[in-house]
Design brief:
alpha/beta; globular; TIM Barrel; 3 domains
């Protein structure tokens, strides 16, 4: 049945996807669309409307939880009988009649406090200079996670539904969410007192508990996905748009934990990815400038390399280089991306802002270009957390070196942004144009960790694989049925062709 459906898609797409000389209409549609973007590039409202409708492929750097907007956290806090601490503006547990506490319920009727809570649980207005000028962007950003934490309890399914709905509104077809589980803490407890430099011994000590921990993670995400599907009516006759957003996960360790606990999280992450196809890779996150993260960075990369050697099929997308001059000593800017690529074996780098400070940046860029190691660019997040934007941002450096890049949201709820805004910034601040954005859109799927082969022989948008050289062939239908990544890319090409065919 699936092959028949894909064959129907192949046949319906043939007129716009054929890469023959006669397909001049598709080329002229692309040129006309590019010319329209050029005309509206200096008009943010028109540019926003254009880019909102543009198919955007995948969002490969999106933190589950950080994608939720403060208004939803406050709504959940109110429904759960939680409180707002007016001395810290955190969501806290009852009692709400204690000093410096007010009920979250009814807070919307007190605009001053409601607005203050939004600012505390996000970075709203930061780039416009709103907020305490003595609090840095990175401190304000990372403080939000503790602030909204209690409101997230038991709401993971709701959070997933909201994240998918926002992706659908931005015409994002695929999400890779950085996620984890409470099982990480339970596994980490097994390594109390362990020698964090003896990787083999720690792995042996964890082996008896990993099977049950993996089962717990899988059960957790069964419940989360079932709840999200229920909210969006995915099994009804009228499913909401979020149901069509394909979602996979990157099991993510927290680098600010004690070293043995980080190893335990990573070991569980590798085991989960091998056991559950919903989890397509491993990541590591948390403030890279935190003193624990700085101290243990090289150790973490060696841990990942050790586990990668034992689990070679598991793919890595690692936060690296989310730093800039002044945030840490220059010596700590000189090797993070290098070690993530060369030591740990990352296939994608999250942020990569400090690339120009690497000890041999030219050689590293050449290696990343040659090995097709993509960089996940988060323009709003980089501007807020690091103050790096415009011509100071290394996006143009990566592109000039031939390193593939993708645009992503990072924590769109905390940053009060969305994927469309990342594309707007790419045009207005980075001066990208339609053909640049189209390549980024294609690369968002090409460098995803979706299973199966790519539709493209080499680079996205180039020559297709031989099986799909003829778009109406049975061989192509079979290839798409066997390769989820290629099937998603095929749909993206159809969506792009339809977008470009619109007369503007």
């Amino acid at each position: 049945m699936r092959s028949a459906v894909l064959m129907a898609l192949v046949l319906s797409a043939a007129p716009v996807l054929a890469r023959a000389p006669a397909a001049k209409l598709a080329l002229s549609d692309e040129a006309r669309t590019a010319a329209y973007l050029d005309r509206v590039a200096d008009s943010p409202p028109r540019l926003r409307m254009f880019l909102q409708a543009m198919p955007k492929g995948g969002d490969l750097h999106n933190h589950y939880g950080g994608s939720v907007y403060t208004e939803d956290f406050l709504r959940w806090a109110a429904a759960g009988g939680l409180c707002i601490a007016t001395d810290s503006w955190h969501v806290v547990d009852p009692p709400c009649d204690a000093p410096d506490r007010v009920p979250a319920a009814g807070l919307e009727h007190d605009y001053a406090r409601y607005s203050r809570a939004i600012d505390a649980l996000s970075t709203r207005g930061f780039e416009a200079g709103i907020g305490d000028p003595t609090v840095s962007g990175y401190d304000r950003f990372f403080a939000t996670f503790d602030a909204f934490g209690p409101a997230m309890r038991g709401k993971q399914g709701e959070a997933l539904a909201l994240t998918r709905e926002q992706a659908a509104a931005d015409h994002v077809a695929y999400l890779e969410l950085a996620a984890s589980s409470a099982a990480s803490a339970n596994v980490a407890a097994q390594l109390a007192g362990a020698d964090s430099t003896d990787f083999a011994a720690m792995a042996q000590r964890l082996a008896p508990v990993l099977t049950d921990a993996v089962a717990t993670v899988r059960a957790d995400y069964d419940r989360i996905e079932a709840k999200a599907a229920e909210i969006d009516g995915c099994k009804t006759a009228a499913p909401r748009p979020g149901c069509a957003v394909e979602t996979r996960y990157l099991y993510t360790a927290i680098r600010t934990a004690p070293p043995a606990a980080v190893f335990a999280q990573l070991a569980l992450a590798f085991a989960v990815v091998e056991a559950d196809p919903r989890f397509v890779g491993v990541n590591i996150a948390a403030p890279e400038h935190d003193p624990i993260a700085v101290r243990d960075y090289a150790l973490h990369m060696r841990m990942i390399a050790f586990l990668k050697q034992r689990h070679p099929a598991v793919r890595l997308s690692l936060h690296a280089g989310e730093l800039t001059l002044g945030l840490v000593p220059p010596r700590d800017l000189a090797f993070h991306i290098h070690d993530a690529v060369v030591v740990a074996g990352a296939r994608r780098i999250g942020h990569g802002i400090d690339i120009s400070y690497e000890a041999d940046a030219t050689a590293l860029l050449a290696r990343m270009a040659h090995d097709r190691i993509a960089v996940e660019i988060n323009l709003t997040s980089n501007a807020v957390i690091l103050g790096v934007k415009g011509r100071d941002h290394p996006l143009s450096l990566y592109r000039a070196a031939g390193v593939p890049v993708v645009l992503s949201t990072d924590d769109e709820g905390v940053s009060r942004s969305d994927m469309t805004n990342e594309y707007v910034r790419a045009v207005t601040e980075q001066h990208l144009r339609y053909v640049d954005l189209k390549q980024i859109v294609r690369d968002g799927l090409h460098y995803s960790f979706l299973p199966g082969a790519s539709l493209w022989r080499d680079r996205a948008g180039g020559a297709r694989v031989l099986a799909c050289a003829t778009v109406t062939s049975n061989a192509c239908a079979t290839f798409l049925a066997d390769n989820p990544k290629a099937a998603r890319q095929w749909q993206l090409e159809r969506d792009l062709a339809a977008f470009e065919a619109v007369k503007r």
